[in-house]
Amino acid sequence: xxxxxxxxxxxxxxxxxxxxxxxxxxxxxxxxxxxxxxxxxxxxxxxxxxxxxxxxxxxxxxxxxxxxxxxxxxxxxxxxxxxxxxxxxxxxxxxxxxxxxxxxxxxxxxxxxxxxxxxxxxxxxxxxxxxxxxxxxxxxxxxxxxxxxxxxxxxxxxxxxxxxxxxxxxxxxxxxxxxxxxxxxxxxxxxxxxxxxxxxxxxxxxxxxxxxxxxxxxxxxxxxxx
Length: 226
Fold this sequence. Notes:
- The chain is mainly beta.
- It folds into two domains: 14-195, Leucine-rich repeat, LRR (right-handed beta-alpha superhelix); 198-226, no CATH class.
- 7% of the residues lie in helices and 21% in strands.
- It has three helices and 14 strands.
- The protein has helices at residues 153-159, 173-177, 190-193, and strands spanning 14-16, 37-39, 46-47, 69-70, 83-85, 92-93, 106-108, 115-116, 126-132, 135-141, 145-148, 168-170, 200-202, 209-211.
- The chain has a four-stranded parallel sheet, with no helix packed on it. A four-stranded parallel sheet has the order 5-7-11-12, covered by helices on one side.
- A hairpin with a 6-residue loop joins β13 and β14.
- 29% of the residues are buried.
């Protein structure tokens, strides 16, 4: 177990946790405002309460497929997040988990998720307050996409607030990862990439990912045009 010895460490920029690690204490990296990259072990069982809260420089994170719970306020105010994939091992996303991730544009929620807590994705978008007489209305400019496996949209709608319903789209995992999202630029191995056991390889020529079943890289045509 790692305790809170990194709490508020503003000089910490990169971190690799030991592969045997199963548990990190609450708020262990909270307010590490300069933290940009962190590698989590495949043995980790949960992202605990406020673990990365206030890590405003953390641009993306690969959640291991061993994680079953994303704790309360785990990624609160991770303002640099743009995309997030929740692996199919996750069953619970606790309240406030991604609140104030203001640059979060896309998230993939698998059908394994049983519960999403209140305000888990609240204020993940710009909010404009409009005054009309004595009333105050909030108009939401929503995230670009909440993707969910086909047949799962109604389930996710029951968990999320109504203002997010219009951005929930049913996409397969394959369709989602083909959106060329920045999250995958730092993935180095098939194991890191393969949350859904898809058979993909990295092209040795151009570096893009393609499916083995396709037999050829869509970007550069490798290996057909060697």
